[in-house]
Design a protein that fits this description.
Blueprint (H helix, E strand, L loop, with lengths): L1 H18 L11 H14 L6 H20 L25 H9 L5 H4 L1 E5 L2 E4 L1
Helix pairs in contact: 1-2, 1-3, 2-3
Length: 126
């Protein structure tokens, strides 16, 4: 629920910034709304947020508009085609010596020792 409230605050702030209003008719939302909303969050805010976080907010807006379309408040979701994936942070695999260091590490907490290592690309559970 916290994420939805946060998304609501971002949308309201965007409406005030971009359109100088607190209300915006659903039928006036176009595809460019999503692009402007994304740019606002990543470029215009005093403390811009990351692309990944901004895409999460756009994704929530897409879900809201999809729900509105499903309940016939609007004929279709105008930002349905907006892509909310990509540009995620690339996770680099561990080096062999890092894996060995994990396996040799003395772990005193049982719950941390349950996932211990990897052998032939498979996690070893203890």
């Amino acid at each position: 629920m916290k994420h939805w409230r946060s998304a609501e605050k971002k949308i309201k702030a965007f409406l005030k910034f971009q359109y100088k209003t607190e209300d915006f008719a659903l039928e006036n939302i176009k595809y460019s709304f999503a692009e402007k909303f994304f740019d606002y969050m990543t470029l215009e805010l005093e403390k811009p947020i990351s692309d990944v976080t901004a895409k999460g907010y756009v994704k929530k807006l897409k879900q809201i508009l999809e729900n509105c379309a499903n309940h016939n408040y609007i004929t279709n979701n105008p930002i349905k085609a907006f892509v909310c994936y990509g540009n995620e942070k690339e996770i680099e695999p561990l080096e062999f010596d890092q894996i060995n260091a994990i396996q040799r590490k003395k772990i005193s907490l049982n719950r941390l020792g349950e996932v211990r290592g990897v052998k032939n690309n498979v996690l070893i559970l203890y």
